[in-house]
Amino acid sequence: MSEKFKNSTFQVRLPLFLGLALATGILIGANGFQPSGNNPQGTAKSYLKFRDILSYIDRDYVDTVNVEELSDFAINQMLEKLDPHTAYIPASEMDVARSYLEGDFDGIGVEFNIFKDTVQIVAPLSGGPSEAVGLQAGDKIIKVDGKNIAGAGITTQGVFEKLRGSKGTKVNLTILRRNEKKPMDFTVTRNKIPTVSVETGYMVDNHTGYIKVTRFSANTYDEFKSTLVKLKKKGMDRLILDLRGNPGGYMDRATRMADEFISGNKKIVYTDGKGTKYDNETFAHVRGEFEDGPVIVLIDEGSASASEIVSGALQDNDRALIVGRRSFGKGLVQMPIPLNDGSELRLTISRYYTPSGRSIQKPYTEGMEDYEMDILNRFQHGEFFHPDSIKFNDSLKYKTLHGRVVYGGGGIMPDVFVARDTLEVTNYLNELYSKNLVREFALTYYQDHKADLQKMPFDKFKSTFEVSDKMLDNINKEAKDLKIKYNDQEFKRSKNLLKNNIKAYIARSVYGPEGLYPIFHETDPDFQQALKLFDQANKLNKGYVQLGINKFRVEN
Q: Which residues form the PDZ domain (predicted)?
């Protein structure tokens, strides 16, 4: 989420992803409005009924009411009768909804956190207008256009509303900067700010590349292709593609990404809707950048929609080893339909199927509440820790290109299961994150040691920098000031993970995302197991596919 607000990678890895994919669907371009030919009389009758009721309420109801709010409420109630992903987006929310999927937005270009009810700049985005006027990491924004926002209960949405605006418009910021006695005033001219969905790509070793894709937005394919080419030039001949926590986005970006790995004219995905209007088959058709060489795809319960298109296509074509936990199970395609007041209807018009014929959409017949609780139910039933708790329906058995058994009925089941490791995750650690304390502590440390850190090459930092016990004592003292109750047993359990996360965030301030992820990955069980599985991935790539569903699994 940007102007640019970022949750920690730690936070992204650990939640139960409740409702994660509800707002983000697989989107295709909308056609112009066409009246229904299925039941024109019924549609007209229902429309007139709704119009009459709304008119009576507006004219005769005893109290003054906002008929627009009533209409929006009625629309949302109606859509809940359809499926969990058909959605109505009011005009007031369209800017934020679009910015998630579009490749850029108009704003000032900062990554920020809200800490102690104050907006603090984590980093000005490279090449953006905030960097150009001299805003720095650690600056605290206390006023926007002369109006106080510090200590005023500002929210992330509130920051978006104040900092975003049309290209060319100006916003006046009052800043508190560390070691400066007086507030500083800056005038920033808003500009087009690119959003990044390929968060990082780096060489793990001389042969292994790693690419993290956070969503499928307008620029995702171009970013991915560029990163893939860059890593190949550095010697990459095997790849880890990380789609964990990726809630999806544009379907065509997903199919183009899959095409980079799949040779010939093999099927990638197909859709099936009412009649044949929205039926479509997508095949590989270009010479991809990485059609040979072992590939491992990381997925989890937060990988949805377009992420499942990619992982399902690569699994069904025996092109990649899928590692992690069962994906979300979102296999419905939405078409965005703009409405005349600036709002938008995102209407489900088809289901998508993997090449073997699997529908990845999980059931939603028990109602919206049950659907939203699915991820939590998986956690409570032990699925995150024991794959045997998943019951497969033999009637939904399918086979991959070379005969491996895979199952439909709800999400992509990985070839190699890796249990979630929660041993070091405690309530105390979660409290530190809920107050943004870990990120804030690392940023402050960076500011205090900036000169020395910037002289240090990343390899040296990675191998020699240690988070000391004194640093941990300081963060515990700050936690006490924030009324976070200290728990010695939980602190000791979380100590190594906390040290890793602090070090990673310091590296993020010094070296960017390329510094953050290599350190995070040192305590990432999915990533560490993936590094051990390239022999299996290579056999799969060469056609040796005697794996079977979940024959290989790793439990922590």
A: 93-166
